[in-house]
């Protein structure tokens, strides 16, 4: 079968680091400057279907993020109840590099994600908003830029 148009494959900013694994490490200040120049500090992944299948697709992405060479954390904000410690272990994630955070009291998951991003202690902060309003998306993107981090929202439907 021949396609009339070439496939346009765009690399997401979140995954560029994995493609350049052999590149030398940059100083923290250089990383911060690179993130400030980066036009995208926010990515979104939408998964639909049976929970078991969605988790199977999600596992390698989270595993790669948990193995990031950065000294910063992979932070999961209020993950779905089926992302248990047992699931993380079976999926092969590096649980020593993951923070699982849940909002407390009056704090919303969005406020917690924004705070985690701004602190800059995480290389990636994963949220689970469905749907994600435009204003909330902008809030996460701005916070990610401020903390030189990546915001990833996973929409499970």
UniProtKB/TrEMBL annotation:
It holds the Pfam family SulA. One of its GO terms (biological process) is cell division. It comes from the Bacteria. The keyword Glycoprotein does not apply. Keywords: Cell cycle, Cell division. Gene3D superfamilies: P-loop containing nucleotide triphosphate hydrolases (3.40.50.300). This is SOS cell division inhibitor SulA. It comes from Pseudomonas segetis.
């Amino acid at each position: 079968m021949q396609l009339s148009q070439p496939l346009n494959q765009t690399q997401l900013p979140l995954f560029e680091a994995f493609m350049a694994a052999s590149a030398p490490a940059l100083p923290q200040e250089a990383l911060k400057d690179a993130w400030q120049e980066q036009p995208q500090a926010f990515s979104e992944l939408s998964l639909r279907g049976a929970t078991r299948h969605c988790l199977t697709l999600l596992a390698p992405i989270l595993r790669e993020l948990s193995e990031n060479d950065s000294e910063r954390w992979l932070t999961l904000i209020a993950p779905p109840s089926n992302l248990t410690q047992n699931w993380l272990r079976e999926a092969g994630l590096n649980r020593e590099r993951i923070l699982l955070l849940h909002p407390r009291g009056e704090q919303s998951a969005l406020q917690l994600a924004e705070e985690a991003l701004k602190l800059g202690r995480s290389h990636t902060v994963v949220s689970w908003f469905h749907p994600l309003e435009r204003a909330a998306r902008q809030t996460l993107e701005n916070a990610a830029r401020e903390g030189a981090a990546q915001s990833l929202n996973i929409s499970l439907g």
